[in-house]
């Protein structure tokens, strides 16, 4: 077993695509492989594409050689992520030769074809029909109506016991460092009844944890004017309450700290949703936030955090920050460190600023030298690590609920309510774990704590 590294980049994580059982494939069945890069929102897109292909009679291959063509779902948020995507496309071309590209980087088709002119087709993010059209053109479907049936549930790229639940697309913010609105458009919320219905199906299929994702979860329903349809209101508070009644863990990601977020906290205190908020604060100095075109209310945010903790003392706060943003002075960075000292966030990650083609931040003056960015990143993470270590040490001797993610011959890898998969820490059980299975929710006593992980016993 290995602990999640603290600097794990979910935008660079390559999803493991589950294979169909080769023995279940019929002769001549067209087969598609997929490489899925990027954030959980892109992972949901990959699941939807594969579900549609399975329903049309395609088989899924876990490797290049077994596929008639390969879809690469790309990330295009940072230049480093773009480079990773180009590398993945190049690898797929070398190993298979027939490659269809989709995802965020697909919003820049000339960028892709300039590097890889042999790709069969390029489509943008969440353009499901265009991806299917490209697959049909390259690998025509050949369904057998007596054998190929619509799967009882969708194709999942996550373990069976948890699933991402995407509630909206796009974003209405205009942050200068971000091009997501350019790639994915403005906010488009799904109908609340459709989200709840999908969640009900997931829970019925055995999902124990729902991870609610979007680009701006707090803004869910704004574009729909918070309409009520089929008994469900398109507002994040109402949606959280509806999901909380399904009996699974509900974890909220990408929540901007709007004033109405405080309405979610009593739901956490009552146990309807997990006491966990993933909030992209990005920075704490007012001038830096202004240059980012973000709300410059760091001091007010501290008041909000205090109010949340007063209502729900066990709440876990996770956030990410950008260090070395153009114009960031040493004094501004020190303000961020001081703010972090006061905020005492539980889970913290950071990125060193980098230019992204098309982002307005590229044109800002006073870009920070790379060595200074690296130094600030290390100092920031050192402080965040010390806070995490102290908070986890305080849990030694307590009894907490955990969900089991994996069991091998060395032990069970679990997560507490304070830990999201892939990006946060783990709790390890190395004795008496033999009867556990992934998806079990059990109570443990914490015996030991590290910088990011815990160890415990049943």
From TrEMBL:
<feature type="region of interest" description="Disordered">
    <location>
        <begin position="1"/>
        <end position="31"/>
    </location>
</feature>
<keyword id="KW-0963">Cytoplasm</keyword>
<dbReference type="GO" id="GO:0005840">
    <property type="term" value="C:ribosome"/>
</dbReference>
<feature type="domain" description="TRAM">
    <location>
        <begin position="393"/>
        <end position="458"/>
    </location>
</feature>
<keyword id="KW-0004">4Fe-4S</keyword>
<keyword id="KW-0689">Ribosomal protein</keyword>
<comment type="similarity">
    <text>Belongs to the methylthiotransferase family. RimO subfamily.</text>
</comment>
<keyword id="KW-0411">Iron-sulfur</keyword>
<keyword id="KW-0479">Metal-binding</keyword>
<dbReference type="Pfam" id="PF04055">
    <property type="entry name" value="Radical_SAM"/>
</dbReference>
<dbReference type="GO" id="GO:0051539">
    <property type="term" value="F:4 iron, 4 sulfur cluster binding"/>
</dbReference>
<feature type="binding site">
    <location>
        <position position="39"/>
    </location>
    <ligand>
        <name>[4Fe-4S] cluster 1</name>
    </ligand>
</feature>
<dbReference type="GO" id="GO:0046872">
    <property type="term" value="F:metal ion binding"/>
</dbReference>
<dbReference type="GO" id="GO:0006400">
    <property type="term" value="P:tRNA modification"/>
</dbReference>
<dbReference type="InterPro" id="IPR038135">
    <property type="entry name" value="Methylthiotransferase_N_sf"/>
</dbReference>
<keyword id="KW-0408">Iron</keyword>
<dbReference type="InterPro" id="IPR005840">
    <property type="entry name" value="Ribosomal_uS12_MeSTrfase_RimO"/>
</dbReference>
<dbReference type="InterPro" id="IPR023404">
    <property type="entry name" value="rSAM_horseshoe"/>
</dbReference>
<protein>
    <recommendedName>
        <fullName>Ribosomal protein uS12 methylthiotransferase RimO</fullName>
        <ecNumber>2.8.4.4</ecNumber>
    </recommendedName>
</protein>
<dbReference type="InterPro" id="IPR006638">
    <property type="entry name" value="Elp3/MiaA/NifB-like_rSAM"/>
</dbReference>
<keyword id="KW-0808">Transferase</keyword>
<feature type="binding site">
    <location>
        <position position="104"/>
    </location>
    <ligand>
        <name>[4Fe-4S] cluster 1</name>
    </ligand>
</feature>
<feature type="binding site">
    <location>
        <position position="75"/>
    </location>
    <ligand>
        <name>[4Fe-4S] cluster 1</name>
    </ligand>
</feature>
<dbReference type="Pfam" id="PF18693">
    <property type="entry name" value="TRAM_2"/>
</dbReference>
<dbReference type="InterPro" id="IPR002792">
    <property type="entry name" value="TRAM_dom"/>
</dbReference>
<feature type="binding site">
    <location>
        <position position="175"/>
    </location>
    <ligand>
        <name>[4Fe-4S] cluster 2</name>
    </ligand>
</feature>
<keyword id="KW-0949">S-adenosyl-L-methionine</keyword>
<dbReference type="InterPro" id="IPR005839">
    <property type="entry name" value="Methylthiotransferase"/>
</dbReference>
<comment type="function">
    <text>Catalyzes the methylthiolation of an aspartic acid residue of ribosomal protein uS12.</text>
</comment>
<dbReference type="GO" id="GO:0103039">
    <property type="term" value="F:protein methylthiotransferase activity"/>
</dbReference>
<dbReference type="GO" id="GO:0005829">
    <property type="term" value="C:cytosol"/>
</dbReference>
<dbReference type="InterPro" id="IPR012340">
    <property type="entry name" value="NA-bd_OB-fold"/>
</dbReference>
<dbReference type="InterPro" id="IPR013848">
    <property type="entry name" value="Methylthiotransferase_N"/>
</dbReference>
<dbReference type="GO" id="GO:0035599">
    <property type="term" value="F:aspartic acid methylthiotransferase activity"/>
</dbReference>
<dbReference type="Pfam" id="PF00919">
    <property type="entry name" value="UPF0004"/>
</dbReference>
<feature type="domain" description="MTTase N-terminal">
    <location>
        <begin position="30"/>
        <end position="140"/>
    </location>
</feature>
<dbReference type="InterPro" id="IPR007197">
    <property type="entry name" value="rSAM"/>
</dbReference>
<feature type="binding site">
    <location>
        <position position="171"/>
    </location>
    <ligand>
        <name>[4Fe-4S] cluster 2</name>
    </ligand>
</feature>
<keyword id="KW-0687">Ribonucleoprotein</keyword>
<feature type="domain" description="Radical SAM core">
    <location>
        <begin position="157"/>
        <end position="390"/>
    </location>
</feature>
<feature type="binding site">
    <location>
        <position position="178"/>
    </location>
    <ligand>
        <name>[4Fe-4S] cluster 2</name>
    </ligand>
</feature>
<dbReference type="InterPro" id="IPR058240">
    <property type="entry name" value="rSAM_sf"/>
</dbReference>
């Amino acid at each position: 077993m290995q602990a999640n590294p603290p600097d794990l980049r979910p935008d660079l994580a390559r999803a493991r695509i589950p294979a169909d059982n080769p023995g279940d494939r019929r002769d001549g069945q067209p087969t598609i492989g997929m490489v899925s890069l990027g954030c959980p929102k892109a992972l949901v897109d990959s699941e939807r594409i594969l579900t549609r292909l399975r329903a049309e009679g395609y088989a899924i291959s876990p490797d290049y050689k077994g596929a008639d063509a390969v879809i690469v779902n790309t990330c295009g948020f940072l230049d480093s992520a773009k480079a990773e995507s180009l590398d993945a496309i190049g690898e797929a071309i070398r190993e298979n030769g027939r490659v269809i590209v989709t995802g965020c980087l697909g919003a820049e088709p000339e960028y892709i074809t300039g590097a890889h002119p042999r790709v069969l087709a390029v489509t943008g993010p969440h353009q499901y029909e265009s991806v299917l059209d490209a697959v049909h053109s390259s690998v025509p479907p050949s369904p057998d109506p007596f054998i190929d049936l619509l799967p009882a549930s969708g194709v999942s790229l996550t373990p069976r016991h948890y699933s991402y639940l995407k509630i909206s697309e796009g974003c209405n913010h205009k942050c200068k460092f971000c091009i997501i609105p350019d790639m994915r458009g403005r906010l488009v919320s799904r109908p609340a009844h459709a989200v709840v219905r999908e969640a009900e199906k997931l829970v019925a299929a055995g999902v124990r944890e729902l991870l609610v994702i979007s680009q701006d979860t707090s803004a869910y329903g704004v574009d729909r004017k918070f309409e009520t349809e089929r008994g469900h209101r398109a507002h994040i508070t109402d949606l959280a309450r509806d999901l909380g009644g399904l009996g699974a863990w509900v974890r909220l990601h990408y929540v901007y700290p709007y004033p109405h977020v405080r309405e979610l906290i009593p739901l956490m205190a009552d146990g309807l949703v997990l006491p966990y908020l993933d909030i992209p604060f990005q920075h704490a100095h007012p001038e830096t936030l202004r240059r980012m075109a973000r709300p410059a209310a760091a001091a007010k945010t501290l008041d909000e955090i205090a109010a949340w903790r007063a209502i729900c003392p066990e709440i876990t706060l996770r956030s990410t920050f950008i260090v070395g943003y153009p114009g960031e002075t040493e004094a501004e960075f020190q303000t961020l460190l001081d703010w972090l000292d006061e905020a005492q966030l539980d889970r913290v990650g950071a990125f060193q600023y980098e230019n992204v083609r098309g982002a307005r931040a590229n044109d800002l003056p006073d870009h920070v030298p790379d060595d200074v960015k690296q130094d600030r990143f290390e100092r920031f993470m050192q402080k965040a690590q010390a806070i995490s270590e102290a908070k986890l040490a305080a849990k030694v001797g307590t009894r907490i609920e955990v969900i089991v993610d994996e069991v091998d011959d060395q032990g069970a890898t679990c997560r507490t309510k304070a830990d999201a998969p892939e990006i946060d820490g783990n709790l390890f059980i190395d004795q008496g774990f033999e009867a556990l299975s992934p998806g079990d929710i059990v109570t443990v006593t914490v015996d030991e704590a590290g910088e990011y992980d815990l160890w415990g016993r049943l």
